[in-house]
Amino acid sequence: MFVLRLVLTSLCLGGFLAHPAYSQSITAEQVFPVQGYSVFQQGYPPMVAPAGAGKFLFVEFWKGGNEGRNMDNMYLQQYGFSDYVEHWFHPVTESGQPRLEVIDLKYLPKSIAVIGHEYDASSKEVHTVSRWFTHQGEPKTKQTVRLSHYLKRPRRNYQESVELSPNRQYLLWWGGDEKMQYASVRDAAGQAVWKDRLQVPGLKEKYSISKVLIEDRTANLVFFLTPKTSSTGPANKPLLISRYLHEEKKFVTLELANSPETNAFLPQVAWVKGDLVVAGCEIAFGGGDGLKLGSEESNKGTINRLQQVFMHRIGGFDKNLDSLTLIRSMVQTFPQKWKEQYAINGTDFHTSRLLVEGDMALFMMEEFKVGAKRKLYFYDIGILGFDTQKGEIAWDAILKKQQRDQGSTAFMSYVSATAKGKLRLIYLTEKGARGKVVCSSFDAWRGTRKDVVLASNEEAKYFFFPANSGKVGQEQMVLVGMGRPGQNDYKLISVTF
Q1: Distance CA 145, CA 113 (A)
Q2: Burial class (CB in 10 A: 0-12, 13-18, 19+), 365
Q3: pLDDT digits (tens, 9 = 90+) for 454-473
Q4: pTM
Q5: CA–CA separation, 261 vs 267, rounded Å?
Q6: Four-point Cα dihedral 458, 461, 467, 468, nearest 10
């Protein structure tokens, strides 16, 4: 059933917002009134996901009795990317079933998976479950399908995540603590492939699980382990890549050593053409050369330095081998302009991301700090473009933005994606002064940069939530935003590259 929802603004196709020479523009936007509840209390649509050419998925809470929704629930919905015509909708859970706390939404070649937390009254435990739908919005199961399979959920230092394999052939749920980990895998149709309880080697030696990935061909798992450390001294331990061969129920581990008296800082991992790439920085505690990190006050009287950057490309995932291969490896000092910018003045790099385009690994670090009276600052983004075939830095850039707010990070940071061979970053230039919505594009191989103003936010009509927004197609992104200031509505913004 095709439904055109009540909206308050017309489509914005072209006009003064379009920048065809730069191939990036806002191609549609609409404000959606919320009916029967307060969006400020219930929350804005939490996430978007792909749904095939010209379409996207998102989850939204609806009050029963409005526009065909017969009960209070979260609803899975498919909309047109350019016109926001509603193609179909369905409640995430059926009448009489427990309400699902939605935490993720995945689009696979043969199905759609809504992931959430559900309370089981019989065991008095919270489990991670999934509800599977066809691409036409029809439920594949009457009830939710449990992904977690612990008897008792760990209470201390519990972690979990849901991941797709690179070509979206498998969906992985894993969860656990330092003592025990659990994993379950389903295929693109939602059918169970395997599940297991396992113990990742190294966790007892003060390592943490930073990321878990799943392979396309074998459905084996890859655990990325980082050493725990303090703010006053290095752990002097290598990074670990631990591959779990589920059919043989064994681990194969590769060590990635860091420089003496340093520790890895903000490392990330991603797939690149069937291999694995690891990128990050090395931090030295208490002095030395490099970029000054934080302040002496925040570091308890010491000066910590980011000294070098590293990149490793690892192969051997195509078969169930007893070893992994280090294909390329590089460690070098920061580019000169980074030293000029941060060696004396310092930086507050706090979070990182890693995206891949071809053989290029695009590593990003963002500044964040908390000032007086809980004032929040999100400033520079440092970018390193690693050529993983040659084992070198092909280009680098420092993107300056002046985001700041009081007590909330909702509109801060940025949305990142790759499209048409370029790294795309969309962000508000400033929060305090409202600023503009900007798309900064970097050629993935050369780093050539172009900044395009997508919209002016002087009238506060383009506040969007980076954490709720994302890429929904090869050349499309949807931003989820606040609607009219102070009004009970929200906004969707379509960006085409």
Answers
A1: 10
A2: buried
A3: 999 888 889 999 999 999 99
A4: 0.91
A5: 17
A6: -170
Q: Is 332 exposed, middle or buried (0-12, 13-18, 19+ CB in 10 A)?
A: exposed
Instruction: Find, among 201, 167, 390, 198, the residue nearest to 277 by Cα.
Output: 390
Beta-strand ranges (E) seen in 375-435 are: 375-378, 381-387, 392-399, 403-406, 415-419, 422-428
**CA angle at residue 276 from 272 to 278, to 5 degrees?**
105
Question: Which tens digits make up the pLDDT trace of 434-452?
Answer: 689 999 999 999 999 999 9
* Per-residue pLDDT, 375: 77
| pLDDT tops 90 at residue 417 | yes
CA distance 69 to 460: 31
Cα 369 from Cα 349, distance rounded (Å) = 9
Residue 142 burial by Cβ neighbours in a 10 Å radius (0-12, 13-18, 19+)? exposed
Task: Give the model confidence (pLDDT) of 233-278 as tens digits.
Answer: 666 789 999 999 999 999 999 999 888 888 899 999 999 999 999 9
- What is the three-class DSSP state of 398? strand
Q: Which residue has the tokens 């649509």?
A: 45
Of 192, 152, 198, 199, the residue nearest 172 (C-alpha): 192
Say which residues have a Cβ less than 8 Å from residue 487's Cβ, sequence separation at least 6.
Answer: none
Q: Could you give the 3-state DSSP secondary structure of residue 290?
A: coil
C-alpha 282/C-alpha 264 separation (Å) is 5
User: What does each C-alpha distance from 211 to 174, 240, 273, 435 come to in angstroms?
Assistant: 10, 11, 18, 35
